[in-house]
C-alpha cells in the first residue's frame, strides 16, 4: 500500500479549472518534489493534500484511507510554509512545544519530542532563545521543528527556502537533505521552483504544467529522458535547444535535416514510416561541442558569457527560432563574432514529434 494515492484529483474555482487528472502514488520514505512554472498549481495541490483547500474532483488517500473530507488536523500531515511565522514572544522550545501543549500532551512527552527534534535539527544550543535572536536559517529550522514534534506521516513543504539569501539557501538545502536521511521512513512532499533544489533533494520529481502532470520520474530520468518538449526545456539550465527539421534517414540511427541547414544524427531508432516526418531535435547546451565535421549548427556567435568553469555561446537567431546556446567547458576566448560549428553525440540527441518524445 502506498503512503499517499491521488486518483483523478481535480481543482476548480467556479468555472476555472486549476488542476485536473492528477494521478500519483507516493511510497513511504519518498521525498517528492513538485516543480512547475509560477501559477501552475503547486501550492494548490499541496494545500489539497493538507486539507486547507477543498478537493473538487477525484480522491486523496493516505495509508489507504480516503481523506477528501477529513479535517487537516486528523490527516497525520504537517506543513512548513515559506514564511515561518514563529511566535515572537516564545522561546524556540516554547514555539516547538506549542501545538503539543494545545493537544494536551503530557509535559514529559512534549519535552522528549522537542529534544528529539532539536537534536535532529541541531537546535539544542538555541532552545532558550527568542526568534529575534536567530538567523533566518535557524528560524526556518525551528519552523521545521514544529512539524517534526508532531511526528506526522507526511511532511509538506511549500518553498521553505525562498525567503533565504543565496548562500543560506544552499546551506539549508543541504540540511534538509540530511534531515531526510535522519528520518528515512518519513514521507515528504516539497514544492519549489528552484531546479537545483528539485534535482538534489528529490527521490522523484513531479513536473506540473497545463493543469496536469507533465512527467514523473527520478531527477536523472527527467534530465536524460524527458517525455515531452515541456519537460525537456523545463529541466536543465540553460534550457535544452530545440531545432526543427525533417527525418531523412531511419533505422537504428535517425538522420534529421535541420531547417537551419545543419544535420543531426540521433540514437533514437525510427521506422520507415517516420521518413519525411517534421520533428524537433532536442540537444542540451552542455552536450554540444565544437567540431570540424558535419555539424548540427554552424553559425555566428552573437554573444558569449564566460562563467569561468564554462563558457556560454549564444548563436545568431535563424528564421525566428530561439537562439541556440552551447555550453563549452572552461574558458573559451575570442569566439564572439566568429563562425563556429557545433555537434553532439547521437545518444545526446532527443527527437520530438508533435511535442512528444519519439523514444519508445
Ligand atoms: N482562491 C482562488 N480563486 C481563484 N483562483 C485561484 C485561487 N487561488 C489560486 N488560484 C489560481 O490557481 C492557480 C494556481 O495557483 P498556485 O497553486 O498558487 O500556483 P503555484 O503555487 O504553482 O505558483 C493560479 O492560476 C491562481 O491564480
Ligand atoms: Mg505556490
From TrEMBL:
Residues in ABC transporter domain copies: 4-235
Domain of life: Bacteria
GO molecular function: ATP binding
UniProt entry keywords in alphabetical sequence: ATP-binding, Cell inner membrane, Cell membrane, Membrane, Nucleotide-binding, Transport
Pfam annotation, one family: ABC_tran
Keyword set includes Transport: yes
InterPro entries given in the database record: AAA+_ATPase, ABC_transporter-like_ATP-bd, ABC_transporter-like_CS, ABC_transpr_MalK-like, ABC_transpr_MalK/UgpC-like, Mo/tungstate-bd_C_term_dom, NA-bd_OB-fold, OB_MalK-like
Database matches in NCBIfam families: PRK11650.1 (NF008653)
Family: Belongs to the ABC transporter superfamily.
Protein name in UniProt: Sn-glycerol-3-phosphate ABC transporter ATP-binding protein UgpC
Species in which this protein is naturally found: Ruegeria atlantica
Name of the gene encoding the protein in the UniProt record: ugpC
